[in-house]
Amino acid sequence: MRVVVSGTHGSGKSTLISDFTMNHRAWRMLPDPYEEVDLANDVPGAATFFAQLRYSALRLLEPQAAPVIAERGPLDFLAYLHASAELGRPGEHAAGFERGIALTRRAMETVDLLVLLPLNQQDTIDIPADEDLELRAAMDQSLLELAEDTELTAGAEVVELVGSREERRASLEAIVERWERGAQHAARATR
């Protein structure tokens, strides 16, 4: 099984994945591409978003022996490119968005479950004022819109999780358990 946890910066992705993997040790955790991609320029822009999109897509296309939970997928960075273009930020955001569509679709074909962590008041996640709050809000909106495009999500089940830290973890565990039961049932049926 492959799960991607998506959301704008400061939406609780790292916390949810950490909480989930503490109880699911067999799962391989793929960290945020921001931590993995060597970026000469730490300032977020079209080139950095596209590099992270490409990295996140390629790692989803790699064969995996164990179930995988990834912090962010290519759809996240497609949303950052879209949001940046919508905000009129300088750079080749629209061109990166267009280039990233096919790669995103291809990678999303390997994903079983896309978990969206939308911004909302009840989650009470504090974010420092020095973060780009305008981009954060715009990316959140872009991500939710892009996730409605079934061609981009390529058949992955899409769920939005809200609530407390514990509620989100419990919801994710219940969905994964349902998937695992379904896979076991399918395996027995093919015997």
Short descriptors:
single chain, 191 residues, alpha/beta, Rossmann fold, five-stranded parallel sheet, 8 helices, 5 strands, NadR/Ttd14_AAA_dom, NadR/Ttd14 AAA domain-containing protein, P-loop_NTPase
What does this structure look like?
With 191 residues, the chain is α/β, with parallel strands linked by helices. The chain has a single domain, classed as Rossmann fold. Helices cover 54% and strands 10% of the residues. The protein contains 8 helices and 5 strands, in the order E-H-E-H-H-E-H-H-E-H-H-E-H. Strands 2-3-1-4-5 form a 5-stranded parallel sheet, with helices on one face. Helix 3 (46-61) runs parallel beside helix 5. This is NadR/Ttd14 AAA domain-containing protein. InterPro entries: NadR/Ttd14_AAA_dom, P-loop_NTPase. It holds the Pfam family AAA_28. Residues 2-168 form the NadR/Ttd14 AAA domain.
| Rg result | 16 Å
How many individual helices?
8
Helix content: 40-55%
Task: Round the mean pLDDT to the nearest integer and report it.
Answer: 90
Going by CATH, the architecture would be 3-Layer(aba) Sandwich
Q: Please report the first level of CATH classification, the CATH class.
A: Alpha Beta
Tally of strands: 5
Order of helices and strands: EHEHHEHHEHHEH
Largest sheet: 5 strands, parallel
